[in-house]
Amino acid sequence: MKKKIFQLLLLSTFLVPCKLLAQDNQFSGWAALFHTQRFSQYWGMSFDGQLRSADQFDYLRNVLLRPAVNYYFANNKISALGYAYVTANGRSASGASTFRPESRIWEQFIYNHKISRSATLQHRFRLEQRFLGNTSATANDHYFAQRLRYFARSVIPFKSDSVFKKGPFLALQNEIFVNVQNKNKVNKHFFDQNRAYGAIGFRFSKKFDAEVGYLNQYSKQATTYTVNHVVQTALYTRF
Fold first, then answer.
1. Nearest-10 Cα torsion for 216, 48, 109, 36
2. Confidence at residue 95, expressed as pLDDT on a 0 to 100 scale
3. What is the pTM of this model?
4. Residue 79 CA to chain centroid, in angstroms?
5. Model confidence pLDDT, tens digit, residues 115-160
6. How far, in Å, CA of 197 to CA of 74, rounded?
């Protein structure tokens, strides 16, 4: 029991940003759909689509589409190979609209295990090969970089059951990003960003969850820091 409590407390500490020296604060909203589909004992697929606003909800900054093929070593051990397409809309100093596309190939491994009678903890390791496009039709600033991500998420039902089928829950998660290749093109640092998140959700059935929560995105630029305060709504479907 002490070990399980320690694991929960350790995960909760991730909700505190690594540093408190941010020079810029932003406020935005994210909406996400996460879907997994199992075809057989070993094979399946997953997809997530996300919409992310700019600061102060001024405009739609990012659209993210991320499909993958999954291989199940066991019910709690899953590998995946996927692709992601990300749009980055922005504004120049003069107020003109900017656009930068990004394509990614990524590989990941997921391990799930219980930390109490009803609560689970998921570990996800993801390596991304990032192909960032030019920032304009006349620019020549495209580049390639690689990034490693570690994600931990716990779903803690309010009601303790051996199998969580329906009801409210607390979700706690944290993800850290580090640049492992061509960091000078990204932000000149090994550390890229950290995302800490806490949410209240409801499991309507074994196939459908919905949640809403607060996400703290702490990002490192070349010489500054940014803290993005995000209200996130997420839907999870499983078939």
1. 130
2. 81
3. 0.90
4. 17
5. 998 899 999 999 999 999 999 888 999 999 999 999 999 999 999 8
6. 27
